């Protein structure tokens, strides 16, 4: 009993620490071009992709967009023909940017609000892994005020402070049946905050190629006084003190990106980005509960995550003054090592394909749409702590829409 509860509680921080939870849906033009943008001048989303490029933007921007995310996953337990599917849920990552500065000035100010990490899934209360996870709703919202300075006609720099506001709601079953035979349940909810920064450099070369370098720092997000709610039979309620709270830390990793822009003609723009995510910060998890019993103890659980990388490419073709077509794709490696894959978002190597359209509705108003298909390679694992064994197969479908006003 004690071992089962410790295993159950120990999995909470995995919700924020898998390559699959870095959603990267920060701009529709950039999504359409395979998530490239660090080495390009496109729109206000430079606040996220490369603050250094912001001072080079020829116009000011106010823009907002959303990318509804449909996550489809299936689990086949080892040695069986059973297949469990997560329920249809709609996550709504969003982004908003404002960029302002005098025309032809050497500086610009900006503010970005975006969701770089998040997840929403529901496996239900009757599947093989219900004691690991029933449902999850995670949101991490970053607020980034930004300053960018043009040092010369060919180089600009920029940076911004990041404030993260996160929330989590997670449920899982407890192997304690009531008089009707229904399992108990644990619900863990809380809000946290963290701080970081984002900085970049943008360069125009004599060869006509543009280069961008961006670094988004690690953000240690602390959850204080999260609620731990246990629904268990009356005979064991003393082992699960109520009300109860917990304190924990969630390390959201740093990201380093090198990007290039190529311009074969006035109609064509090509881009290439290489990206390294510092998941090595996720070495272990520790939880401190306000009320302990012989059953409910504070936990320390190793994770030993590894850095992950991605390579992205994209293209834009301006078919007319008011119309642009975009396409791209990429490959990303998994952060979770063997033995630490969980059902929150089953982490695996993946590839993705994207496309998009841009249309100028009016002289200063643009609409951009995008679509992404992401395929995670099937991964057969036995989790070291829960002993949940089987094969995960997952796909992600992401449409997107944004409006931009520029002057």
From TrEMBL:
Claim: Signal is one of the keywords in the record: yes
Localisation per UniProt entry: Cell outer membrane
Family: Belongs to the OmpP1/FadL family.
Membrane topology of this protein: Multi-pass membrane protein
Organism: Mucilaginibacter arboris
Gene Ontology molecular function: long-chain fatty acid transporting porin activity
Signal peptide positions on this chain: 1-18
Cellular component GO terms held in the UniProt record: cell outer membrane
Alphabetical keyword list: Cell outer membrane, Membrane, Signal, Transmembrane, Transmembrane beta strand
Protein name (Swiss-Prot/TrEMBL): Long-chain fatty acid transporter
Superkingdom as given in the UniProt entry: Bacteria
PANTHER family: OUTER MEMBRANE PROTEIN NMB0088-RELATED
């Amino acid at each position: 009993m004690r071992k089962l509860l410790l295993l159950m509680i120990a999995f909470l921080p995995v919700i924020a620490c898998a390559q699959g939870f870095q959603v990267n849906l920060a701009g529709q033009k950039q999504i359409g071009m395979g998530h490239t943008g660090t080495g390009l001048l496109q729109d206000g989303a430079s606040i996220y992709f490369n603050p250094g490029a912001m001072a080079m933007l020829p116009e000011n921007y106010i823009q907002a967009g959303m990318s509804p995310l449909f996550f489809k996953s299936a689990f086949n337990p080892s040695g069986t023909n059973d297949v469990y599917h997560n329920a249809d849920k709609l996550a709504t990552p969003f982004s908003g940017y404002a960029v302002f500065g005098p025309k032809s000035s050497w500086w610009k100010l900006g503010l970005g609000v975006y969701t770089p990490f998040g997840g929403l899934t529901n496996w239900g209360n009757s599947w093989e892994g219900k004691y690991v996870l029933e449902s999850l709703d995670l949101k991490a919202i970053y607020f980034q005020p930004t300053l960018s300075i043009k040092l010369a006609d060919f180089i600009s720099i920029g940076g911004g402070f990041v404030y993260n506001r996160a929330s989590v709601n997670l449920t899982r079953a407890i192997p304690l049946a009531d008089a009707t035979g229904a399992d108990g349940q644990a619900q863990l909810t809380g809000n946290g905050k963290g701080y970081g920064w984002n900085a970049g450099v943008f360069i125009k070369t004599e060869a006509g190629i543009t280069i961008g370098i961006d670094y988004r720092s690690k953000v240690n997000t602390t959850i204080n006084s999260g609620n731990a709610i246990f629904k268990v039979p009356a005979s064991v309620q003393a082992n699960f003190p109520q009300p109860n709270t917990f304190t924990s830390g969630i390390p959201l990793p740093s990201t380093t990106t090198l990007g290039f822009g190529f311009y074969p003609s006035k109609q064509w723009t090509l881009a290439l980005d290489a990206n390294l995510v510092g998941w090595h910060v996720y070495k272990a998890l520790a939880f401190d509960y306000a009320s302990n019993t012989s059953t409910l103890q504070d936990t320390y659980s190793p994770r030993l995550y590894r850095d992950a990388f991605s390579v992205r490419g994209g293209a834009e073709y301006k078919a007319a003054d008011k119309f642009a077509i975009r396409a791209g794709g990429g490959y990303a490696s998994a952060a979770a090592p063997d033995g630490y894959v969980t059902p929150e978002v089953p982490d695996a190597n993946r590839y993705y394909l994207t496309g998009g359209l841009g249309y100028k509705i009016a002289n200063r108003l643009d609409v951009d749409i995008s679509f992404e298909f992401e395929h995670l390679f099937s991964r057969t694992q036995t989790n070291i702590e829960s002993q949940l064994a089987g094969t995960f197969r997952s796909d992600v479908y992401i449409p997107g829409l944004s409006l931009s006003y520029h002057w």
